[in-house]
Amino acid sequence: MQKAFREVGHGNARMPRRQLTEISEHGGLMLSMQAYIGGEIGALGQKVVTIYANNTTENNLPTILGNVQLLDPASGKCLAIIAANALTAIPTGAASAVATQFLATENSDTLALFGVGAQAATQVEAICVVRDIRQINVYAPTRGHVTRFCREMSRRLESKMCPALNPNETIKNCDIVVCATTSKIPIFDGELLEPGTHLNGIGSHTADARELDTTAILKSKVVVDSRESALAEAGDLIIPLTKGLISIEHIWAELGEIVAGKKEGRTSEDEITLFKSVGIAAQDVVSAKVIYERAVREQKGLAIDLN
């Protein structure tokens, strides 16, 4: 994932904005995200996701369905079709790990986690790869969900999992904060953020939803995965922008620019940094390539001639 962001930062990737098609008569949406990553990676593909609100009750199917199509960039040949559900959570976590590697303080060892879904799990797993996290405070509105999540993650991580009683307690004395919720309103008071904190905001991805309040945004050096996508989809930034409380220049950099060495990441121990992610197609395509190459090596998957 770090290599993918480096190629994006060097301008070696082409990613049109995600396309959205409404299927109003069936209450559905289709989203398509395409990417070509050149340089040392060489990957081409697209992710197609459908969201049908009535699927669980009318069709006995999940609300969200999707797949990633990986193509040979030299010929256009279809190499693999991979189910997108797990694949979506994995690269999102990996992207936050890259951001944490470049933006969190070197000695960060405590993490506050908001949310207990699939995205939350891959976030903490990936971040534990780049920082030695000794304690993770976890908060979600449903206490039982938090308890189950902490029990499960205790089996997968060496970090101490600590259920938190409220949002304020969750972030107290934490070096890293991860927001991976479906909330449309801020989930904690930005005034409580301590100097040196790094945040990963990955939950909200529509213009009218935000997990972080304006105070948190104002206090932070803001890094995004894509300026264009963030300004169209990240309510955390769009809402204070619309109110005139910040300007576009408040976005310091894209993560790829920092990984490529074109802009600085963290410049002091006291700086508060924020990686605001809405997801870019390069994450899914590079992950699909890694999975495909491993499947070929291990002779896994089902081979079908589609060409």
What's this entry about, in short?
By secondary structure, the chain is of the alpha/beta class.
Structural class: alpha/beta
User: What is the CATH architecture term of the largest domain?
Assistant: 3-Layer(aba) Sandwich
User: Class of the largest domain, according to the CATH hierarchy?
Assistant: Alpha Beta
CATH superfamily of the largest domain: NAD(P)-binding Rossmann-like Domain
Mean pLDDT across residues: 94
Tell me about the largest β-sheet. Answer: 8 strands, parallel
Adjacency order of strands in the biggest sheet: 9-8-7-10-11-14-12-13
Assign the CATH topology of the largest domain. Rossmann fold
- Determine the strand fraction and express it as a percent band: 15-25%
The percentage helix is 25-40%
Tally the helices: what do you get? 11
Radius of gyration, in Å, reads 19 Å
End-to-end Cα distance: 29 Å
**What are the low-pLDDT stretches, counting only 5+ consecutive residues below 50?**
none
Shape: globular
> H/E series, N to C?
HEEEEHEEHEHEHEHEEHEHHEHEH
What number of structural domains do the residues give?
2
What would you note in describing this structure?
The chain contains eleven helices and 14 strands. The chain has 307 residues and is α/β, with parallel strands linked by helices. It folds into two domains: 2-87 and 283-297, ornithine cyclodeaminase, domain 1 (2-Layer Sandwich); 88-280, Rossmann fold (3-Layer(aba) Sandwich), CATH 3.40.50. The longest helix is centred in the first third of the chain and has 20 residues, at 84-103.
